[in-house]
């Protein structure tokens, strides 16, 4: 093998079955105290060793007696019985001596003395007795093999006298982070460093899959160091993961190492992200090369490593739940790959709307934000907006139902809102996508959002928001929830070293500007001001550089990539920048009237009027919230 | 308070809200390394501390250069560039120095020397650059408060420079088992002992709820010992559970203790099982008295303690999924209680059929076997067979779909079958209810089972099974899967001390007999033989004592409660009894023809013909399986 299998294009299914066939997976087991095996998987059927109860016992508080001593008792003919001669007193659970065969409960007794009672009903054999084995009979099956043990199973096993259980040993999964540029979290960072978070994510995933993670220290990009670590790891672990970067140079390394000390079976699977995965074996242990981009790594972990770990503990694959959803935006895909697209989901009206998230393989946040996965088959080139699709759910359906979908313009107060809504113990969520004010209007038109934060300046009248709603959403009954007035201005380096004082300075001083994306309210505001000042786009250096949020613009300025950008005061403050105010604007929430009746929206209205929320936005600074919560 | 609140009848909902209002729940938090907080819950919003990437970096392998140096490049007009003067070589992820503003990927370069390349396309600023903050912008929200941390969240937090996270401290839940009759699992058992498995089940449940369990040693029924243990536990824990027996005497004890050192708020909730729960507080810590019967305890844990634990970690209640099902048998309920009925579920045809399981509060196995819970409201006296009901699922819907429902006669080979079907890695289950052969026929008539194991002797012809199917199931197309011929006989004490040699001896020697329930094939066989021998029921001592399985009968004989009973050889062997053969009989599986096409049934047919299965039934002994798997 070797170069000839370099970046093959196996289908995922075929890759997995080919790989698993070549592997020689040895399930091992260990014997644990029954009480310590919650969540573990049985590797043999568990039969009871004793019966439960293991003696006949009383099901009631009362007296144990012989049924024959009650013959003839009636309301008219009471029979008197003597303790120790005719009966003994028993509590629930007490054993019934062999000489007695039934129990009369205390409510049916008339006490006639310290040691005597009268009864007024005859009893039958076995009445009120829990016979030996009533719950569990000796030698009967309690739970089968390959069963994930639950608390109730522990109870039944202990009741059945089973004090030790053989369960599958959790496979130890070694995780080797490689890369000269990698540093551990908490290290002092310098340009060029990459924080090794992948190996920590893998460790958490492995534990969730049912394995035991063993993380090795970072290994520099050195063939022999990597080889030696792999050799140590295959000694100490059942499965080994090597996390190489996805650059060609480094991948060759991993694949070469595995090929030297073992075999590479597959290098390259037709999935995106995740293509350059390596599946091999060293000393009869599976060794997998995981691509470095976090999103690629995630899909390889969930689709291949999970499968493998579960083989060791005989857990069947639990596929993710699938729901039908309506795609809100076109998704294009290559015929070369089976593609995994992360989706934002929300019930808007009674439709489940799926909106694709960022598809970059480096977009960690797209995994955090994703509610579901759309898998686009290799044979499909694209799916049109409006089509019904199958989405695999990453979140509970009920949680998705309790999520406010908020698509539109970004402001830091949306983050605060998202947090406060979730703090209240109603299980509600706010999930936002930052596509600018016009993007928000478009989402309202398509019915893919509950509400859209907007700040759209009418270039003619100078009025905010209302004319846009009238123009674009005239056929819908849209209300505007007044939110905040905020100050927009130029964000500049701390101390304003370039002495910027107005928008004209961008041209005069030939400043590097960073812009917002088309459709953003802030972009419109910028263009409006350029027009007023008679400045042309071409005169602005960096006009074409587009960022999607105020914070991104502020970050570009803070890092020195740009000299200034237009944005809100709070973003400048968060990034410790100086701020030159340009104007006030109105940032409101546009919402179809029908949604005002939803519980999640009512909650939102409460939250934005709450003291907590106003306190938080005071901390951010630069907001006037005198009208907040007014619906117009 | 005190006696006057003894066994109140609060509705569950009211009890919980009343109790929680009186409690003063203090959520505590702890700071953990981010990588150690998988599954924990944030107690504050997590904002990124740095951007990710935190510098502009290359998205490709290639060269970093100035876009302006490429102006005019085309297929016709190549531009030559020199390393270090015009460009530097970059790998994916490498930082872009300030003097460069774009990346041209290696595929678009023509190498002209060691240190020079030609390009044939002009580039634009920011092309192939991942700008600072592309994934995560500094100060933006990564996850909100009250969020259960997943592996992907760990990745995003570490990427965002968040190396420590404040999460809610898991509440420590003290568990105090009380009872003089309690012994630890593994102790040598004597009559009257009760194995303390409850406290172990509670511990596992508490961990599943998200708490930390602390189990105390068994405390004898001594007021002061219990009091002192409670006082120690409230010092050491956040919540304390006292597991008293459900007998009146002992419960008074727990309630008295709590009342002396704290307060009892509620004693008695209108739920069944679970009524005698005690909710109180000692030194501002919740103290709950849990009933002793395991099933009562289970429902109190799931419905009250879970709720309470989740309060400490701000986890919203995740209610169990509810499905519509058809009730196969009438369920009666008292107007005094909100009742929890454990249900066996199965998809038979496309209907979800729900069959109530044993309702005894001591029936641990009913919890193990339950697939769902039917809650019967306090205002309802009963639900008729055939009605549509809401069932709360304890198992995944897909697992229920993969379950073969098998209702009918019991034989130990059914346990073996259930195990072997689950061992195969298809995720199939076999779930059986032992209601006797006639019960199985009834279930087929009602369509509540996939198949029914039967051994029904035609008293007229001496033929097995076929005539019954013709008589009772003439309107259905039923097939018979031949299973085993087995030996029925009298099970007697080891060594046969009473010298039993025939059925006549039961009368002659005045033996204590143990019978099977009405409708069991073995009962019919016994009656058939009595008739042949001209013996009357009344002559048999113990004729009225009914057990539901061969093993239960064998257990009664083994314990000396009975001198003999009729049953199969394998059960006698499992219980180490002697066996006097009476006759051979045919134990077959009746199944509607349409189900033969189901994957789960095809699998079953494969398993019963498999070598493994035959080997296991050889071990049990007494079976002839020459026709096994033949469908007639």
UniProtKB/TrEMBL annotation, chains A, B:
InterPro entries: MoaB/Mog-like_dom_sf, MoaB/Mog_dom, MoCF_biosynth_CS, MoeA-like, MoeA_C_domain_IV, MoeA_C_domain_IV_sf, MoeA_linker/N, MoeA_linker/N_sf
Pathway named in the protein's UniProt entry: Cofactor biosynthesis; molybdopterin biosynthesis
The entry's keywords: Magnesium, Metal-binding, Molybdenum, Molybdenum cofactor biosynthesis, Transferase
A Pfam family per the record: PBP_like
The protein's role, per its UniProt record: May be involved in the biosynthesis of molybdopterin.
Family: Belongs to the MoeA family.
Protein name stated in the entry: Molybdopterin molybdenumtransferase
UniProt organism field: Clostridium tanneri
